[in-house]
Amino acid sequence: LIRFVLLVHLAACAAVTGEFICETDDQCRHGDELGFCESTGYCTFTDTSCATQRRYDDNASAAVASACLEGVTTGRIVDRFVVNDEMGRPLLQERVIPAAELKPSVIFEDGSMSPVAYREQDGVFSFANPTGLHYELRYETAGTARAFQHAAPHVVTGHYAAGRRDRVPVTRPTTLSFQQTPALTGQAWITSTGLWTQSAAGNGSNGSVNWMNAGSFSGALGLLDASRFDRVHYVLTGTVLGYSTITAHSSYAVTQIDGVALTAAGPLASVTNRDLCVDVAHLAATELARIKTVYPSATGGSTGWSITAAPARDVRPHFGHSLAFATATTAADGTTAARFVNPYPGTLLVATMTTNATVSIGYRTNGGVTFGVDSRIEVAVDPTDASCSTAAMLQPTTALSGNATIAGTPIDAADKMVTLPAGAPFVIATWTTVRPGPAHVYNVTLHELEDDGAGGTTTAVRGGWQSSEQRVMIPAALLVKGHEYVLQFQTTTGMPNAAAGDHLTVEYPWQVNNSYSLSFVIN
Amino acid sequence: MRFVSFLIALCLTSVAYADEPTNPEAQAAFRAGASAYMSGKYLEASRKFSASYEREPFVDSLWGWAQSERLAGNCVTAMGLYHKYAREVGTARGTQAANEMIALCEKQLPAERTPWYKNKLGGGLGAGGVAGVAIGITFLALASSSRSAADEQMYLDDFEAKLDEATTRRRIGAVSISLGLAALGAGVTVYILHDRKQRSTLTAGTDGRVVFVGARF
């Protein structure tokens, strides 16, 4: 009897189990957490300890219950943008992209495709990838086609725009004029936040711009709306101790009506106390010398540095209104104690330096065209006063890429003949680091070199791909027999987790260097 | 009760020393029995009086034997001996004394004669056990129902809620059945022990010529 009682107790201790079969994500809920109904018919839930970030529920079949999801690539695509708060300060927001806008698709390195399941509630997607193939994920944001290549089982990426998404387009000439006192001199700029624009407006205290021609930082132009806390600024810049900075500024809350001219009148305040300072070390000559170790024939060397007021940091791409800046036609190393004001409330500051050089690449023996081998570096700065104790070290260190191999053929000489594998949907291009340094992401562009018929060369971009490996898949159809090409490598640092699939995390310094392969001809 | 017995014993003693068995062995056993009786060693006294009576059927030995058995708690045996004494003593006073003792014994017997099925503890445990098993079976059936209902749920949360309900019900059922079975076992044990105690009143004896049996029914 005692044994029987013990056995009954043992049997009762175990929880009653079962298999839950799902057909839709909505069926997979743990309280407020929405899970995923996988193609296996079982629910998974987010678990960051899994490579795919998803783990099967305990109530899946015994074969997979509580196991990490495998054979599937998962991820998320987000769209971020800034709006102004009631104080005119930028506020970063996130939007889930509607499926009809995103149009996600995926193609694998073997040419096969897989449907991409996309969930509009949270912007999460997934597609079957049973053998872990390299893939190219294609999608659109705000009408712009985008793609990146990867092999990670979980990827996150996003895009960022300066300004409201719910902007009213400008369809007719809409003049925005300023009549201000006192009469001051200086280069005039009309800038705006909420909808981020920047337009040159001549000189002096009174200027105007046809809003149809205003320079939008991102996306289509929109009409300013005071009820949405948009602000328009009028700034004058002038040269002070070898650099330019804001010498006067004003700000207005205006609401534009499409096709209706608007005049803002008021005082224009002269800057009498430049209350912020950054000690900018701009080492352009050092950077040009670094570029020339790879491209001894590189010419140019113009450079510029700036401090800009950005609506957000740790997001890409970078936008910002200039607070202080300088340019030079020849590269030189130097340090500038840049004093300035920031009339844009709530913005975050970024110091940037660009170094520009070019190389000549030509079709066969024809005369070449110039390709930029320039570089860019951005660092975050947070000055709080005019003491210049905040330093910005603008010295690029990013790797330079080269030594390309196309379909296994090393491109070790110009006009190298390359034989493509028959029937392969993609041609694999690889490369190595030719100048040491950090590298997180590569944007690779395929340029075709063509005979212009006059002994010169013309170029055309045939495609571009983003990868976190030194490897891209080029659609074989883009490489035409007898045609000549060159690959551009835009080597980037500032996305430290990109190799693991995280294209959202951004860190400073953000750096980009451009370099090229030698030319190759398809056999 | 013991005081009355003591008085009787004194009486017996005075009679015994005035009139004893004549057989020397019977006499020695008679005196040893009387001595043990006076010392409260009733089982020993019973054996001595019995031995004395076997050697010589002296009625006072029979009386002492009967008294010793009664005081040792063996009323059924004692009653047989009292009946025998009443038949053999041949005096009205002796017969009356025997009948008084028999009546005394009979007053004691009813309390010991409770039927096994009237044992309240055993009955309570048994009834509780049956109820526990019944409740347990009911909950196991409900658990099975909850498990079946789980498969009909559209949402995972509801599915899990039904599984949890099934688990809870199964555990309640198992615990209830276990406790019920344990109570049933305890009840049966109580009945068995009760029966064994009853059996201890079943007794038999002989004086060498007559065999007598006493029992409760």
What does it look like?
The complex is a heterodimer of chains A (523) and B (217). Chain A is mainly β. Helix content of chain A is 5%, strand content 50%. Chain A has three helices and 40 strands. In chain A, strand 8 and strand 9 form a beta hairpin. The model of chain A has no long low-confidence stretch (mean pLDDT 95). Chain B is mostly helical and 217 residues long. Helices cover 78% and strands 4% of the residues of chain B. Chains A and B meet through helix 1 and strand 1 of A and helix 7 and helix 8 of B.
Topology:
The complex is a heterodimer of chains A (523) and B (217).
Chain A: H1 2-13, E1 29-30, E2 33-34, E3 36-37, E4 43-46, E5 54-56, E6 72-84, E7 90-96, H2 99-102, E8 105-108, E9 113-114, E10 117-119, E11 124-128, E12 135-141, E13 144-150, E14 154-161, E15 175-181, E16 187-193, E17 197-203, E18 207-210, E19 231-240, E20 243-252, E21 262-267, E22 269-270, E23 276-283, H3 284-292, E24 299-310, E25 321-328, E26 333-340, E27 348-362, E28 368-372, E29 375-381, E30 390-394, E31 400-406, E32 409-410, E33 416-418, E34 426-435, E35 441-451, E36 457-467, E37 471-475, E38 484-493, E39 510-516, E40 520-522
Parallel strand pairs in A: 6-14, 15-21, 23-30, 33-40
Antiparallel strand pairs in A: 1-2, 3-4, 4-5, 6-7, 6-11, 8-9, 8-12, 10-11, 12-13, 15-18, 16-17, 16-19, 19-20, 20-22, 20-25, 23-26, 24-25, 24-27, 27-28, 27-29, 29-39, 31-32, 31-34, 34-37, 35-36, 35-38, 38-39, 38-40
Chain B: H1 2-18, H2 24-38, H3 42-55, H4 59-71, H5 75-89, H6 92-112, H7 120-150, H8 156-199, E1 203-206, E2 211-214
Antiparallel strand pairs in B: 1-2
